[in-house]
Design goal:
By secondary structure, the chain is an alpha+beta fold. It is 58% helix and 11% strand.
């Protein structure tokens, strides 16, 4: 099985050369983070991911989690790797200094999350979910709640979950039935069952803090009557010591297609003591802090599976000999040529490379917008960054996970029969990848959020936040002859994006169902344009480095070649998505429900 190699050079390229992250930190007033510190983080994060996590990637999948009367045991090596992670201070990178964190911007840790996730996604989910719990408490918790839970969550000694889904409702949280009964002491008794709770029970941390949605007596029906609660696995004295067990327990764990090393739990709340976070009946508003963080984390998963698919394909394609090149032998002394010489194999490898590297730039850019929202003192800059995140988060989550799954499939296909065999690891990448398009809101739900709630409800204003950025970039670089082929195509699509949005809006005024009919194609169309923007930025940087003289010509030329491939072979997919949107709603609804099966 191919070992994971952390793409540190490419991460440095995106952070330092394309996005100028040091200047970004200076604008935020963060003076103590420089290139050398970031590079040190990357190097150490790469060592941990490659040496500790990749080593238990396949074994964790083979062994999986085990369940015994409410107790969940993680695969061999998971607990030990987590202790090293905590001892290394990795969970606290972005944490508030007041609660023991290092106080660094979120974008400092984004590459670490990518590396741990690519090396072992199932393992990375345990600490990954805690970040959302921390963000929710920081934003909505009382001072007492923060003092009680944030120090241990920040250090990683405790982990967090998000408890939303119930057996009778998935994404439609308006149907939620879990009850919260007020108690005389100001606490609440939480009763109900939650399903598909990632990392809901495990043996890796001393305590698990559940962030749980429930409904108060007499609360309004639907989503307007949901409140948010902290429900700890163990009670605490407020100083970090755990005491008695709360009445929340794991009823079972799911038997799944992938992410076997992560416990996906049925959690039973049997009058468990909970503590209200934020106002009554505003739980869903508060939970969006958690959910948006989780959606960005899932977008990272898309990049991780694309990178893993790329590496698996490259490792195999350079070693495997099969057939001769159509233009003549490229390995005349061997019995056949390495399969990487064949154009169709190249097509698949280049696709995974373009998605991994383009997606990386998009995610890191999104993380920097998050820095502005959390740390900037410029109110207008915060407003703009918040609007940018609102638009790009559903695109990043859905588009990058869809192409991450595609990349995982290519990773198998390049490896041929070996890719279908478990020992090679490529099939595990696909099994682990598929959940990313489902949890934290399916692709369809993200698409409705993007097109319906974000764009059409704002009369296109949400879209213009980003299309203006693209327009200004294209204007500024219109006279750059080397960049012109990319800029002209990007500018044309940017205009078409607005026109297409307006056309959908006009149809939706006649029939709101048009939004649902167009939404997924619209999101994918938008995703391809977003990546085109980031690839054009990377070409500009690469051209500048080559013009200035460099010892890394191959690296920068590879960037330009990958961008050229993306624009010529992947970006044309926008035409298919546009055509599908223009195909309209009628053909989707033409068959009566009773006539689908005979």
């Amino acid at each position: 099985m191919a070992a994971y190699k952390a793409p540190v050079r490419d991460m440095r390229f995106v952070m330092h050369e394309v996005l100028n992250i040091e200047d970004h930190y200076k604008q935020l007033g963060v003076e103590d983070v420089d290139a050398s510190m970031i590079d040190a983080f990357l190097e150490e994060g790469a060592k941990f991911s490659m040496n500790e996590l990749d080593a238990i990637y396949r074994s964790g999948d083979e062994e999986g989690c085990t369940f015994d009367n409410g107790t969940v045991t993680t695969p061999k090596g998971f607990k030990e790797a987590y202790q090293k992670y905590v001892e290394g201070g990795w969970p606290s990178i972005n944490g508030d200094v007041e609660y023991g964190g290092q106080g660094l911007p979120n974008s400092c840790g984004i590459a670490i999350s990518e590396m741990t996730g690519t090396a072992n996604w199932a393992w990375s989910m345990y600490p990954g979910l805690s970040h959302g719990a921390v963000a929710t408490l920081e934003e909505h918790g009382t001072e007492e709640q923060k003092a009680t839970y944030l120090p241990k969550l920040t250090s990683g000694e405790w982990t967090g979950t998000m408890c939303l889904t119930e057996p009778h409702c998935g994404s439609d949280l308006g149907q939620l039935k879990t009850k919260a009964e007020p108690q005389p002491d100001g606490t609440y008794k939480i009763t109900g069952t939650k399903i598909w709770i990632s990392a809901g029970e495990h043996d890796m941390a001393d305590n698990i803090i559940h962030i749980c949605l429930a409904r108060l007596p007499g609360a309004p029906e639907g989503t307007k009557g949901i409140s948010l609660f902290i429900v700890p696995k163990f009670f605490t004295d407020g100083n970090g010591s755990v005491g008695e067990r709360n009445a929340v327990a794991c009823g079972s764990i799911e038997h799944k297609m992938g992410i076997h090393g992560n416990a996906t739990c049925v959690m039973n709340f049997d009058g468990a003591t909970g503590y209200l976070i934020g106002p009554e009946n505003k739980g869903l508003n508060c939970m969006f802090t958690f959910m948006n963080f989780a959606r960005i984390g899932t977008a990272i998963q898309g990049v991780a599976h694309a990178e893993r698919g790329f590496q698996a394909a490259m490792d195999f394609a350079t070693e495997r000999l099969a057939m001769r090149s159509l233009s003549g032998p490229k390995n005349p002394d061997g019995p056949a040529d390495p399969v990487i010489v064949h154009p169709d194999v190249r097509r698949m490898i280049m696709t995974t490379k373009a998605f991994a590297e383009g997606g990386r730039a998009m995610i890191y850019y999104l993380a920097m917008q998050g820095d502005v929202v959390r740390q900037s003192k410029d109110e207008e800059a915060v407003k703009q960054a918040d609007a940018m995140m609102a638009l790009l988060t559903p695109i990043a989550k859905a588009f990058l996970t869809e192409v991450g799954v595609e990349s995982a499939i290519h990773g198998i296909q390049v490896c041929g029969g070996s890719g279908f065999i478990r020992e090679w690891g490529a099939e595990q990448n696909l099994r682990d990848a598929k959940i990313s398009t489902i949890y934290e809101g399916t692709t369809g739900i993200q698409a409705l959020d993007l097109l319906g709630r974000k764009i059409l409800m704002s009369q296109g204003q949400a879209l213009r936040v980003f299309t203006k950025v693209i327009h200004k970039f294209c204007e500024a670089n219109a006279d750059d002859e080397q960049l012109k082929p990319f800029v002209e195509k990007l500018g044309s699509l940017n205009k078409e994006w607005g026109d297409l949005t307006q056309a959908i809006g006009m149809k939706a005024m006649q029939n709101p169902e048009e939004v649902g009919g167009a939404s997924v194609d619209y999101l994918m169309y938008s995703g391809y344009i977003c990546l085109a923007f980031f690839w054009t930025q990377m070409v500009k940087t690469a051209n500048e480095k080559l013009a200035a003289g460099t010892t890394e010509e191959a690296f920068y030329k590879s960037k330009i070649a990958t961008a050229d491939f993306y624009f010529k072979r992947l970006l044309p997919r926008t035409m298919a998505h546009k055509g599908a949107i223009e195909g309209g709603l009628e053909c989707l609804m033409a068959i009566e429900q009773d006539h689908f099966m005979f």
